[in-house]
Amino acid sequence: MKVKSINRRKAENIIFKGTVIFLSLLTVIPLILILFFVAKKGISIIDLNFFFSLPKPVGQEGGGISNAIVGTMILIALTCLLSIPLGILCGVFLAENRKSRLSFWVRLWVEVLQGVPSIVMGIIAYVWIVRPLKGLFSAFAGSVALSIMMLPMVIKATEETVKLVPVALKEASMSLGVPYYKTVLRVILPVSTSGILTGILIGVSRIAGETAPLLFTAFGNQFMNYNIFKPVNALPLMIYRYATSPYKDWQNIAWGASLFLILFILGINFIASGIAKKWKVQF
Amino acid sequence: MESPVLNTIDFSLYYGETKALDKINIEVPENQVTAIMGPSGCGKTTFIRAINRMHELDSSVRREGEIFLHGKEIHGLDPIGLRRKIGMVFQKPNPFPTMNIYDNVIAGYKLGGIKLSRTERDQIVEDSLKKAALWNEVKDSLHKRGTFLSGGQQQRLCIARSLALNPEILLLDEPTSALDPKATKRIEELIVELKEFVTLMLVTHNMSQAARVSDYTAFFYMGELVEFGKTEKMFTSPDDKKTEEYLTGKFS
Questions:
Q1: Domain range spanning residue A213?
Q2: CB contact under 8 A, B92 and A168
Q3: Distances (CA, A) of B75 to A171, B143, B156
Q4: φ, ψ of residue A215 in degrees (nearest 5)
Q5: SS3 (DSSP) at A35
Q6: What is the pLDDT of residues B6-57, one digit of tens each?
Q7: Other C-beta atoms lying within 10 Å of the C-beta of residue A209
Q8: How many CB atoms lie within 10 A of CB A202?
Q9: What is the pTM of this model?
Q10: Structural contact between residues B91 and B173, judged by C-beta atoms closer than 8 angstroms
């Protein structure tokens, strides 16, 4: 057998390492370019006024995105309210009943649900909620569409995290005569907080930028609205409408809103990774 | 023999089709240490898990026969109440990682929804930790996480957690198998001290441990109870040939 010289092996090692590092950097470049480009286009429009004022009609100077920010926050809050409790319960069920026939089917449905295009969610919410309410577009209908999208993410995050909880911990609790539901709520879920929360935040950061499900549900609104049963504006909707408009002012606002939305999502992701690290429970 | 706190009548257990325990008849004497020993896979852990009905967490397990606690059939009791009366300590120390030492000890009450006054709680925590010989080491750090303790201390914390509920029986499933010799010695001393308060059943694969701490020994082999009697007698002149072979190391 021919033995490669040590220098040859070292060189191969360096080449391989270099290639890996180069390729990983390459994948980050699109993100950096996007951030840079959006920042360049959007930064000039952003000032305090941008965040706190309502959109203005075409031709008027200024105008902001306050209603879209509020709308997006309302949509996120409602979506969380709808999808988190359901998602966590379903995830716990799947983790606790790994082999039952029901959990096999539920798991399959969750995976299929994850693959359903977002525009379909919008149509579904339109047919189920907007139409029966006599065409009443609303934040609520938008949240339903978004929560169906977020549900699989919460379920998966919960299932995977709860699966990692040692059986010994569950047994410790059960052997103290703690009822099963309390074992889940007070022992299993608390040690899973970091994983579940990370999953939720990543879910939020995904739905925060969704436009398609909102087109026929939340619809958009030129005014400030706090009523969840009325149409609301949302950042991605606003970006969609303004960016496709022929007016320069509106296009600029779309750039500003895009920058804000990207930074917002980036921020959520940073928080998520911070939580994943800091709150992780050692077993 | 003293009055039995627990006895079984023809108790058998199946995992699916596999028979794990075969017609076990045993009378566990009160306030004594009963060691359960035998080679791996002989059903000793299965047996003590059946005593506080932990085996029911696995739905494929089926049982036959009866277990009586003070003359009452345990399968007719509420499993939650039963598990408060029969505590369990596991192979690996498993304190609740999100709770501090104080909350770990009181966890049985807190999670079980039993309301106590502040002074009652303090009293139970102090008593239980004292019984588990841990009080002096942790009394100044009751509000630290239980997982910061050493392995042996964690195991004693788990014992304190079970003792807090004032159980009649404490089941110990190889409680020292994950510990170093020094910590093992502490636990063994503790087991002997605890006889005063509670009946102990100790699963061990360590023969000398059984000899050191137990008053009675049960020898399990292939899911059957081969021999049961005073530890002294069993280790000096066992009745059964299998027991003798096991004790002399002919198989393990």
A1: 50-278
A2: yes
A3: 19, 38, 29
A4: -55, -45
A5: helix
A6: 989 999 999 888 888 888 899 999 999 999 998 888 888 889 999 989 888 8
A7: 16
A8: 19
A9: 0.85
A10: yes
Contacts of A283 in chain B (CB under 8 A): 97
What is the C-alpha end-to-end distance of chain B, expressed in Å? 29
Nearest by CB to A175, which of B87, B96, B98?
Answer: B87
Residue A283 is assigned to a structural domain of this protein: no
Question: Which residues of A are less than 8 Å from B162 in CB distance?
Answer: 175-176
* Contact state of B80 with A177 under an 8 Å Cβ cutoff: yes
Q: Which of B94, B95, B112 sits opposite A178 (nearest CB)?
A: B112
Q: What span, in angstroms and rounded, lies between the C-alpha atoms of B175 and B59? A: 26
Taking an 8 Å cut-off on Cβ atoms, the answer to whether B111 and A168 are in contact is no
For A180-220, write each residue's pLDDT tens digit: 999 999 999 999 999 999 999 999 999 999 999 999 899 88
Residue B26 makes CB contacts below 8 A (sequence gap 6+) with B7, B8, B218, B225, B228
CB neighbours of residue A180 within 10 Å: 15
Best A175, A186, A188, A196 member to test B by mutation, with max B CBs in 10 Å, is: A175
A58 and A14 in a common domain: no
Of B94, B98, B107, the CB nearest to A281: B98
Nearest 5°: the CA angle A250, A254, A258 is 170
Tell me how far apart the alpha carbons of residues A124 and A226 are, in angstroms, rounded to a whole number: 24
Question: Do residues A41 and A122 both lie within one domain?
Answer: no
Asked if residue A114 and residue A22 are part of one domain, the reply reads no
Pick B4-247's CATH classification: 3.20.20.10, 3.40.630.10, 3.40.50.300, 3.30.70.100: 3.40.50.300
- Inter-CA distances, A91 with A51, A102, B4, B98, B104, Å: 37, 13, 45, 21, 26
Q: Look at residue A149 and tell me whether its pLDDT is greater than 90.
A: yes
